[in-house]
Amino acid sequence: MALAFVGTTLGIFLVLLCALSIASLQPTEVALKYNWLWKTVSEEIVVTPGLKFVGPFNDLIRYPKTIQTLEYNQAHHDLLDGRTQDGLPLILGLSFQYRLLPDRLRELYFTYENHVGDYENIYKLAGMHMITELATKFTAYQFFNEKQKIAEVMRNSLNDYFSKNLFASVESLQISEDDLPEAFTATILTAATSKQNITRMSKTLEAKRVEFQTSRQIAEAQANVTIQKAIGEKARIMQNGKADAAIIEAYVEAELTAYGKIHKTLGLSGEELINYIWYDTLGGGGVSADASTDKDMEMLVGVNPSAYISR
């Protein structure tokens, strides 16, 4: 009986010992192996998730592997009270995201962890101190107009310090609230409105300038078209005039030649030649007459040309 009892007790003890030697790790966690009997921490950093055999009297001290957020806001009653470079009071509300560096987890534990999770308070206090100090490097006007730029400068500074001293990296930072004195805010808004109006009027002026330049170019183009049309019309009129003059000159020259021959052949001159020309014209003669047309006419000698009768 005694041996059976001892065996049973030993079996139960071994089962419990094995059960206590197994621990699980979630995919979002990283851990240190801790021996609570000897109060020691293994140098091994456990990063792969699943069931782990950690051995008797050992457990895992778990830390988050994912990005964590620290906030300073009204809900947590920890808005940051600071001043700008130009001395104006500033109430800041912001948040930043950090990630623990797994390869430096053991340093984090021995440096800041009297109790597991104490590092979070250290991070919050360090962030508060650095952010209020960094705020003094920027003017109130910059906080009003360059919030994103300021947030990036703060993130870089926090990341440098956290990486070197707090064993974490700062991934991003957002400024959610930056309360400046009401009088300053009103002045800035008025100035911004005036600047916007000036910009709008400048753009309107530039648009009108372009419109007028375009109208001028169109007018100049239309004027050039009108001038070219006038030059073309002038050339046409001149050409037609020269052609008409050449035709008339040819007719006159032909008439002179023809009547010159009549003068020599018939011996007509003076009034007789003029009468001949008159009757010849009335009868459809002359250089311009149609030679293919038969003409039926009578000439009355000694009759006044104005009394000429044709049948």
What does it look like?
The protein has 311 residues and is α+β, with helices and mostly antiparallel strands. Among the domains are: 12-64, no CATH class; 68-180, Band 7 domain (Tetrahydropterin Synthase, Chain A). The chain contains seven helices and nine strands. It has helices at 2-20, 105-112, 118-135, 140-145, 147-166, 182-266, 270-282; strands spanning 22-25, 29-35, 40-46, 50-53, 58-64, 68-72, 80-83, 89-100, 168-179. Strands 6, 7, 8 and 9 form a four-stranded antiparallel beta sheet that branches. Strand 2 and strand 3 form a beta hairpin. Helix 3 (118-135) packs across helix 5. The longest helix has 85 residues, at 182-266. It is rod-shaped. The chain starts with a helix and ends in a 29-residue tail after the last helix. The mean pLDDT is 85.
Question: What name is given to the CATH topology of the domain at 68-180?
Answer: Tetrahydropterin Synthase, Chain A
The rounded distance between the terminal residues' Cα atoms is 177 Å
* CATH top level assignment of the domain at 68-180: Alpha Beta
Low-confidence stretches: none
Topology order in helix (H) and strand (E) letters:
HEEEEEEEEHHHHEHH
> If you compute it from the alpha carbons, what radius of gyration comes out, rounded to the nearest whole angstrom?
58 Å
Tell me which CATH architecture of the domain at 68-180 applies here.
2-Layer Sandwich
Per DSSP E runs of 2 or more residues, the count of β-strands stands at 9
Protein structure class: alpha+beta
Proportion in helices: 40-55%
How many strands, which pairing sense, and closed or not: the largest β-sheet? 4 strands, antiparallel
Question: How much β-strand is present in the residues?
Answer: 15-25%
Shape: rod-shaped
| Average pLDDT level | 85
